[in-house]
Amino acid sequence: MAERKSKNISNISVTKERAVPAKISASAFDDDDRHFDTSLAADETSSRTSIKRGSTSTDVAELNPKFGTSTLSKSAPIAEKVAAALNEQANAEENGVTNGNGSTDRDSEGPSSEHSDELASSTSSFELSDPSSSSSSWAKFAQTYFQTKGCHSYSCSALQQPLLPKKDRGDHLASLASWVTILRIMGDLPDADVGDTLAVAGTVPAVVTTVREYFQRKYTKKDVEETQKRHSELFKDPAHSGVTSIPFLPERSGGMLDKVQYVTALGIYRPEIRDELYCQVCRQLTNNPSRNSTVRGWVLLSLFAGSFAPSERLAPCFLQFLKDSSPVFAEKVERLVRRTFISGTRGFPPSWLEFQAAKNGKPILIPIALMNNHRMLVTADSVTTVQELCHQICDRIGIIDDSGFSVYITLMQRISCLGHGLHRIMDAVAECEQNTKQMGMRESSSAWRLYFRKEYFVPWHNAKLDEISTELVYHQVMRGISVGEYKCDKEEVLVLMAAQRYFCESQDSFEPMNLTSFLNSWLPEESKKAKDMAFWEEQVKKAIKEEFPKGKKVTAESLRADIVTYAKDKWHSQFSRFYDASKVISPAMTLQNGIVGVNSKQIDIMDEKENARNHITFLEIGTVSRTRHSTTITTLSGEEYVMHSNHSEDLHSHLTTFLEGLKRKSKYAVVVQDSSQLEGAIGVNVAKGDLVILDGPYENYIDADIITGMCKRTDKISVMPRDLLYILPTPEEPAADSMGMLTMQLKKDPTVFINLSASEKIEHTLEAYSKVHFRPTSDNTVTKVLKQVSFRKEKSATPWQFSKDPIKKPLLRKTAFKEELRSTSCRCFLAIQQYMGDAINKDRLAESELMNKYIINPAIRSRHIREEVYCQLIKQLTNNPDKGSTEKGFKLLYFLTSTVSPSYELTQHCEAFLRGNKHKLAKICLDSLRRTKQDGCRRYPPHTREHESFSYSTQKISIQIRFPFGEQQTFDIEPTARVGSFRNMIANKLGLAVAEDYGIFFGLQDRGSNLYSSSLAVLINARETEYFMDALTHVERFWLRQPDPISPGTSSTTQKMDLTIFFMKKLWVDAVPGEEVLSDVEFHFPQEVPNYLRGYHKCKMEETVKLSSLLYTAQHGQDLAALKNLEKDQSFLIPQTMHGEKPGNEWKSLIESSLQNNKSMKSEDAKIEFLKILSTLPTYGSVFFEVKQRSVKTYPKNILLAVNKDGVIFLDASNKGILARYGYNKIPNWAYDENSFTLVVGESSSAVKIYLETNVGHNLDDIVMCYVAWMMNKHIKKRPSAAGVTVGESSC
């Protein structure tokens, strides 16, 4: 495999040589000796690849994927052409990128055997808050559930038994072994000295295999007793005990990454020990005297949180443990664990890439290759799904509709479509790394690549509506033609395509030499071999003259749209989502190991060699149903096609989405009965089988009882009842043969069409769902006999409808069989009854607390409780005789649907229930459920503001935003608005050109030093990918440190918060004064003035006089009255550091003289001139931080840090002289905690750590990270990409 030159982040745009790895780190894993740096280099991959059909590319992927399930596979011949297209793109440039691994390939070494408190990380010591005062505290949990009482805090001794009781001996032994591994990871127990060992590359079994084999063994009581003795011996002399053959403790412990992957894999594979793993780490974090051990523990906890979630029994206590801990680490862990609550358990242990990111406290920046040769870095974490990644890409590049776009991952000979569903992107990366390791290479050298391309078209796709999407698909099509992925069956079509592409790229410059070069590089190899180049040149020139004569107005945009539309219709089979089917049963045949392809035209059924065997058009389909592993299509003629597949859920979802979308977009319907046979249709001149063309898409009539349309047979427009028509799922007028088929079927059995039309308005219940999923009754024989003779109808016979009685057991089987979920499920039902008024609220809890604490929070934490709560609520809304109770129930359902969505199957029943319900909130709830399903669930229950602002007419929330120019404005947002979309809305309303340079911040008034505003202490940046209301809740939970809002027995009141929401300039990357006047006047100027007045800019006397006069003109215009106050108070015009330079009267005289030059200057012009002078200074556009340092003896104790687009500048706090400048290419890593910030600067052996004392390290981290990400995005934009990039360099 050919290697390309890599670029270390330290050398971006400086040199092409690879940097020498630095031995300096800001990580707690200093002694784990593997180097990591940020590299932008790529390895070549083989041109031969293969593709997997239907690989977890589901919109509703299984929440708990099978442990170690493969994503990559070999199956489709066409994958070679797809891979060729991708590789051809990747090789188009000279330099590529890899996964950011320009690292050395030294083995990871275990932690040092010395238990030392020496500062091995950037974090200074902090003491974990004692959570024992909380009702759900860690100490109380340990006292209640631990087998050994009083062992909830730090210890380095051996466990005599697991912390929590275990029924299975394997779980018991795994818990003891995990304790040893966790202590070794945290540095509290040295590794065993096994001497020099030699392992043949690729022979060490994968960690998932090792874990699986351990759990598959049978263990006796004797095994447990002997293992406990061996553990005791091990702890007597951990390094030299020589104890071996301990179950679940591999002989070769491996490096730090191996240990982390192994202990995480135990929790992924075995749900029964997940709580044990969490408890063991939390125990070690409680009262831990070692800073190094504490940091390692939090890193490990964050990796656990991104891999699997604690059970419902531990979850409330764990969240309280995090809330009571330092926010520096705890808020990151909570963010991950709450996301894992929603996404479910992952399939692979953390990758090398995730370990580096967790160690360094940085986000993962993943390179994505687009089909137009552009590259971009997107932010990810361990829980990021492919769906979230696709949304982020589309938001960044401006794609309006992401339907059909998917992410592909390649690794050497294999390529897999990850789709755009709930598959975790880091699981695919971890699998690639494991494959690389099995081939004898380091995980860090895994050359995987990610691509964003069109997988399929929706049937109603219109290429003219989204230019950016069309451009990407156009480039994909053209590249695919070039490598033979898409074949032109006619010579003239290929010639026309060549002419159109040449026109799009060269416009009017038709140079013969350029044309020759273009054809040589673009024409497929087969075509170049079949005909000589002179022939093609002549044909293309002729086509150009015919298609684009002078004077004819043709735009490149319209041509691209035409090409994409042609590709959608011509190559619809290639633009398909494919599913492997173990069996396909149709009326004509039974096919083993087939392939089902769903595209914009039809459903294709193929054999394993991809030969077409049958197809079904959407017009033929009557209903689509599914079981666990099969999907059944029933046609209008009664034929059934049964497709057995492991991806039946996604296949069913895909088909129903297409059918529903086609009906919503359709303008065509067929009359299902004569108008004379339907009351209300008398006088409408239509007959059974007539084609009716609606005067608009059917989505305009979904809630209407009558529809206006034109009968094709009579050409007359009529108003007809909705029940008279069957909407045809087609975007275009049906062909004559299709109409003939429909008419024939109508004559045979019109009831099929009538029932399908009527089913859309039938009130739906959970009766059918309950027969399969509800818990069976546990009545004995005598009870059953008594019920049969009773005259009263037994309510237990209808558990799916309203009941005033509380439940003693959960409704669903899967919650009833889980001990820790039973009581929570019953408490949820009682809370639902109390909220709806069907039960007494004995504790007098406020409605918002009752809903959030006892209904929605449990639903967020557990997917099983989520299903249970949905069933309980729909049960109470079905045949509820109390109108007031129903009103409250639908309000609760709205908040539930806007927060979480259930499984795919239950979602179908919920949607049917809401479609058939006539309540005024039913449609709002339906839209909310669909939006949550599409955009993702929230991390927190609804905020207090959401409860207060709810009304039937609008659900929008009013948010007050403060701007640097002194004004405040109120914006109304949806509860599900993300920070990025909110930011864009504000920028658009203000008329700002580039929204990405701005940010939304939460300003706090209770801690820290002054940053942006004289009245604020700290600003917390809101992540643009988060829901805004979740970000607000998160800040209040971790940074305001408010007490729990409501205690039992008290009434609900709105909490007064010391919090202000700001919208400000964040990245000063395009802030040249005068180029964008609006930004200069309203943002740049008001944000720079405080920095100037505090004396952060070092200005000469002449510059100070000029700047102060401009500042006066900008603020007061030509009115000189305010200048009189200058003698008494210089702070409003003169920098703080210059106050003692001259007395007030001299400053007044100098400024008055300078003001003579500003007589004709307007306020706006003065502001721009003020910025122009400041822009000549190196500190212009900086965020300043007052810090203290003791690391560098040549620097003063008090330092002023200036962070801007050029890097970090160290200034002397007294005279503002520049002590040092470090570009971001000279800052390999940094880290922070509550009271310090550590910067690693320099390269190689000259790199040093600079410890800075500050309590706003999170602000420093955020602004540095944003500039580094911007720089890397700029660098990578037009370079081929390969694998992942994290930020930061450390020895690991």
What order do the helices and strands come in, and which of them pair?
Elements: E1 35-36, E2 51-52, H1 79-90, H2 138-145, H3 169-185, H4 207-216, H5 221-236, H6 256-269, H7 274-285, H8 291-305, H9 315-323, H10 327-343, H11 352-360, E3 364-370, E4 375-380, H12 386-397, E5 405-411, E6 414-419, H13 425-438, E7 449-454, H14 467-483, H15 491-506, H16 512-522, H17 525-530, H18 533-547, H19 556-570, E8 577-585, E9 590-598, E10 602-606, E11 612-617, E12 621-626, E13 630-635, E14 640-644, H20 648-665, E15 668-671, E16 691-694, E17 706-711, E18 716-721, E19 725-727, H21 736-748, H22 751-758, H23 767-773, H24 781-789, H25 813-816, H26 819-836, H27 847-861, H28 863-877, H29 883-897, H30 904-916, H31 922-935, H32 944-949, E20 957-962, E21 968-973, H33 979-990, E22 998-1004, E23 1018-1021, H34 1028-1040, E24 1059-1065, H35 1077-1093, H36 1101-1116, H37 1144-1155, H38 1163-1174, E25 1183-1189, E26 1198-1204, E27 1207-1212, E28 1218-1222, E29 1229-1232, E30 1236-1241, E31 1248-1253, H39 1257-1276, E32 1285-1286, E33 1290-1291
Parallel strand pairs: 2-6, 3-7
Antiparallel strand pairs: 1-33, 3-4, 3-32, 5-6, 5-7, 8-9, 8-14, 9-10, 10-11, 12-13, 13-14, 15-16, 15-19, 16-17, 17-18, 20-21, 22-23, 22-24, 25-26, 25-31, 26-27, 27-28, 29-30, 30-31
